[in-house]
Design goal:
The complex is a heterodimer. By secondary structure, chain A is mainly alpha-helical. Helix content of chain A is 65%, strand content 9%. In chain A, the strands form two sheets. Chain A has a two-stranded antiparallel ribbon with strand order 1-2. A two-stranded antiparallel ribbon of chain A has the order 3-4. In chain A, strand 1 and strand 2 form a beta hairpin. In chain A, helix 1 packs antiparallel against helix 2 and helix 1 crosses helix 3. The radius of gyration of chain A is 28 Å and the shape is flat. The model of chain A has no long low-confidence stretch (mean pLDDT 85). Chain B has two domains: 101 residues, Ubiquitin-like (UB roll); 135 residues, Fumarate Reductase Iron-sulfur Protein, Chain B, domain 2. In chain B, 33% of the residues lie in helices and 13% in strands. Classes of the chains: A mainly alpha, B alpha+beta. At the A-B interface, strand 2, helix 1 and helix 3 of A face helix 3, helix 5 and helix 9 of B.
């Protein structure tokens, strides 16, 4: 409903009444909201890293598949790995996976509120075993790959 | 003349304006002045029509939350000198509809808050004559951090999920639900589980973590939500393994 009202300085103005409570002005959120703040950008990169984690999983499955198919297929797969585009993609994926793992381990203490003897276990004691397990797994994989 | 700083303030009159605009005022830059003092200076001396919420001036009431140079802040705890030589831009809290100047519409939050039942639920209330529900200091300590929330809504302004999906329950409401879930006197966990474990509840949270960063009371809503995700998952596994068993 529109209504003419007189304001404090005696000027006529058009007043539009809205339902109660009035809706107010909503600021539209930009599609690029995540670019304005490092914390938001870091979050988006973290979400994006899962795509590259999936890429590594697919690559490993292809490798296993080639291994089963025989020496010829495995040589073809090695040729595929030597492709500069694949090398570049793998290097990028590697850094994204490092980023993913480190941020994941750092966030773990937030989700795990373990209490011992009436006190909450400090964040570092929850993060450290994760890093230790990661290091151990890396050493085992490294040993398996490099021993021969 | 004393040193001045430029204060750029959002102005919006729903009767007159289609979109908000920015108006600049020169205010004295005093060492002991917070942004709220500068706003009150404008209201008292320059333009009495400037509208904003405030009450306690000591970080307790949670009314004066606004965006200061793009960051959600309690204006009563944000010193002007930290922004010298200026300008200081003061805008209404992000992610809420603007009603007038720096005032936002928070009915949505209040509805969500009551939906998560942030009070002590007892299966059977004991009569007053039997005394209080006792609690040890350790039991208090488990939820104390989450009970510090003053509903200032800085966390909602920092949360991109709430900005993009207004149905999301949001950090403060979820942290307060967790505060009562962890209270040893409460027996309402299963009542809250159905509300909290929906998509618009804890699973809407993607753990950006900014709610915790901006919280002036160090409540850590992001932590509360992730901890509850763990609880909800355990409950889900339990219901899978024991479909006929009761909820804990």
């Amino acid at each position: 409903m529109d209504q003419i009202s007189i304001n404090a300085v005696g000027r006529k103005e058009l007043t539009t009444y809205t339902e109660y409570p009035p809706k107010g002005y909503r600021v539209r959120i930009s599609t690029y909201w995540w670019l304005g703040r490092w914390a938001y950008l870091k979050f988006i990169l973290r979400e994006l890293s899962s795509v590259l984690v999936a890429w590594f999983v697919i690559e490993t499955l292809l490798q296993v598949n080639a291994l089963i198919a025989g020496p010829g297929a495995y040589q073809d797969f090695q040729g595929f790995l030597r492709n500069p585009v694949v090398i570049a993609l793998n290097i990028i994926s590697f850094f994204f996976i490092l980023f993913h793992a480190i941020t994941w381990f750092n966030l773990a203490p937030k989700a795990m509120a373990i209490r011992l003897g009436g006190k909450r276990v400090p964040a570092i004691l929850i993060a450290l075993p994760n890093y230790a397990a990661w290091l151990l797994a890396s050493v085992i994989v490294g040993w398996l790959v490099l021993r021969g | 003349m004393a040193e001045q700083i430029a204060l750029e303030v959002t102005r919006f009159s729903p009767e007159r304006d289609k979109v908000p605009s920015i108006q600049a005022f020169d205010v004295p830059l005093r060492k002991e002045w917070v942004v709220l003092d500068a706003l009150n200076y404008v209201k008292d001396r320059v333009d009495g029509s400037l509208s904003f919420r405030w009450s306690c001036r000591m970080g307790v009431c949670g009314s004066c939350g606004m965006m200061v140079n793009g960051e959600p802040k309690l204006t009563c705890a944000t010193f002007l000198t930290d922004y010298a030589p200026g300008p200081v831009r003061v805008e209404p809290l992000k992610n809420f509809p603007v009603m007038r100047d720096l005032i936002v519409e928070i009915t949505d939050f209040l509805g969500k808050l009551s939906k998560v039942k942030p009070w002590i639920i007892r299966a059977k209330k004991k009569p007053l004559s039997e005394g209080e529900y006792l609690q040890t200091p350790d039991e208090l300590d488990t939820y104390r951090q989450f009970s510090m929330c003053i509903n200032c809504l800085l966390c909602y302004a920092a949360c991109p999920v709430y900005g993009l999906d207004p149905l999301f329950a949001g950090p403060a409401a979820l942290a307060l639900a967790q505060r009562y879930n962890m209270d040893s006197r409460d027996e309402g966990k299963s009542e809250r589980l159905d509300i909290l474990s929906q998509h618009d509840g804890i699973w809407g949270c993607t753990f950006v973590g900014e709610c915790t960063e901006v919280c002036p009371k160090h409540v850590d809503p992001a932590g509360a939500i992730q901890q509850y995700k763990l609880t909800a998952t355990q409950e889900w596994i339990r219901s899978l393994l024991m479909p006929w068993g009761g909820k804990s």
